[in-house]
Amino acid sequence: MNIIAETLGYLAIAAGFYAVTKKDMSGFRLWHLVSSFFYVIYGFFLASGPLIISGIIFCIIHIHHLRKLRKKNTPNINNNSNCSTC
User: Fold this and answer.
1) How many angstroms separate the CA atoms of 5 and 68, rounded?
2) What whole-number distance in Å separates Cα of residue 9 and Cα of residue 80?
3) Is residue 78 predicted with pLDDT exceeding 70?
4) What are the record keywords, sorted (predicted)?
5) Is pLDDT at 80 greater than 60 in this prediction?
6) Which of 78, 83, 70, 86 is nearest to 29 (CA)?
7) pLDDT reported for residue 48
8) Distant-in-sequence, close-in-space partners of 8: CB < 8 Å, separation ≥ 6
9) Minimum mean pLDDT among 4-8, 14-18, 39-43, 81-85: which range?
10) What is the distance between the alpha carbons of residues 26 and 47, in angstroms, rounded to a whole number?
11) pLDDT 10s digits, 11-66
12) What are phi and psi of 9, to 5 degrees?
């Protein structure tokens, strides 16, 4: 097998293991997104449809949840109804 493909596979594994060490959900999702992305590329090297499809689905899920987390943690400056000093 190609050394580049092998390296991508090991990077995907390492990023996945690192993801599970994260205590906050955004850190976990970000690193699992990186892992999934490497799995997609690895899947192309192996011509493995299931690996590519599952990696893409995981990427979509993690991007969706990361956007929701970012939206949740971003204060809404147009809504002053929750401001106690306004």
Assistant:
1) 33
2) 49
3) no
4) Membrane, Transmembrane, Transmembrane helix
5) no
6) 70
7) 94
8) 38, 41, 42, 45
9) 81-85
10) 31
11) 999 999 999 999 999 999 999 999 999 999 999 999 999 999 999 999 999 999 99
12) -60, -45
By 3-state DSSP, what share of the chain in percent is helix, strand and coil, each rounded to 5?
Answer: 75, 0, 25
- The one-letter amino acid code at 85 reads T
Structure tokens at 82: 């929750």
- E strands, 1-86, are none
**66 neighbors 19 (Cβ within 8 angstroms):** no
C-beta neighbour count of 5 within 10 angstroms:
15
Classify residue 76 by burial, with Cβ atoms within 10 Å: 0-12, 13-18, 19+. Answer: exposed
